[in-house]
Fold:
Amino acid sequence: MTLARVAWSLGAVLLAGLVLSPVASLAISALQGSGELWPHLAEYVLPDALAQTAGLLLGVALIAGVLGTGCAWLVAAYEFPGRRLFEVALLLPLAVPTYIVAFAYLDLLHPLGPVQTALRGLLGLSRPRDLPLPDIRSLPGCVLLLGLVLYPYVYLPVRALFRMQAATLLEAARMLGASPARVFRRAALPLARPAVALGLSLALMETLNDVGAAEFLGVRTLTVQVYATWVNRSDLAGAAQIALASLVVVLALIALERWSRGRRGYSGSAQRQRPLPRTRLDRRRGFAAAAAVSMPVLLGFVLPAAYLGHSAWTRIARAGLPPTLGAEVAGTVLYAGAATLAAGVLGFLVAASPRLVGRRAGTALLRLSGLGYALPGAVLAIGLLAPLAFADSRLSAMLEATVGAAPALVGLGTGGALVTAYVVRFLGVSSGACEAGLARIPASLPDAARMLGRGPLGGLMRVQLPQAWPAVLSGAILVFVDCAKELPATLLLRPLNVETLATHLYGEAARGTYEDGAAAALLIVLIGLLPVALLMRFGEGNPSRARLPSA
Structure:
């Protein structure tokens, strides 16, 4: 084995250790807790948290599944006014993080907010208690808002699979006398089951990762309890124990998705299949279909984005830009940019690892890189505390022995801790995009480079990277946007006295000063439009975030 191969193998082992360290650290931290804590958690914390988490997951699965599958079938199988516009507009809620939707609707639906004030004016009522409406701060309210934001995770893969279905299969069902509804229920939907399972798994993992929306709306999920136990009670062992329970839920979701898909797939004959033709709806049904697909876009994107724009403009016109906004933008760009650079380089090397360290080991590393994406941000942050503290103590000891100084480098309260968390969390996004780009390069090109005297690394950098750079760039954009929007790990690991756009917005919502947080929320939404633009540009293509990370 050459020296270069040994170096690459050692680097792969270190990277695998970094990705796996949060899980091992959680188990060790949980065991260090007091034996008296488990009865308290089992009696007072876990039952309610598990019940609310299960209710939230089931509700979001129902809403996201129905909206995503229904909208995908309408735009894939029917022609109606505005179909082409809605086909891409249905992606727009991806640009709005869940906590921003909760932030917007809390102010919109407040008893003194614009919606209830307008309703009381129409009805001639003067006092808020004269018009009692359901409180958005509830489990059903949280289910509804998260479902409106997360349904695109189902819509994207299901729409693509519906378009892949051969027309002959569905036409055969019609010839046998099945109605259009029966064709969808008995033929199209069973064929789309793998895509539905994939999309629901992604939506539910995003639901489990949420802290801001659930806390704003009064839902005490496992992830919210992890944050509250550490920050409010300063109980790291208890937070680790709750995090382990949350991790069990994540693994159960992944196992359920694998079981649901099983060996099911879609295949056709060797003959080229005729794609599914769209049926043109009459005027009445066409406008009904347009109205149906417009509601998720209106409620999941247009209404909260319009509110944020109006509130930001009102605040700027009255008092100017928030004085701390520039520092928050700089902090967001600094940490997200550093993590993007690191994740981009590591993701490309991970994607190329089958060529550098061997197919079996490289494939294992590639799958392992997606583990962080499956971990909720709060769970990941808790799990990284001990590994980062250990690394910081070792590095500080080395520096003190060599230069006589021992600064904190990657421990709690430093930017290095936050960047490390971002890299571990979103490495799978980068490696997935790079893997897709490298897969499109003919095998003859790296073979030719090797015949001309280039080693594996030289061929990778001089031949494959120039060919795969669009995929590498798209993966980097997705990582940057995910880092800029990330809230749970940022709340727990950000440096002292440092605010990002996400943490500033969280603080304003916690204080109830919604208008002062509108500008930060609007900037996050504008940043979030970047991956949506990528998805629109690539049409049916689906960047790496629409892949279920392997564990």
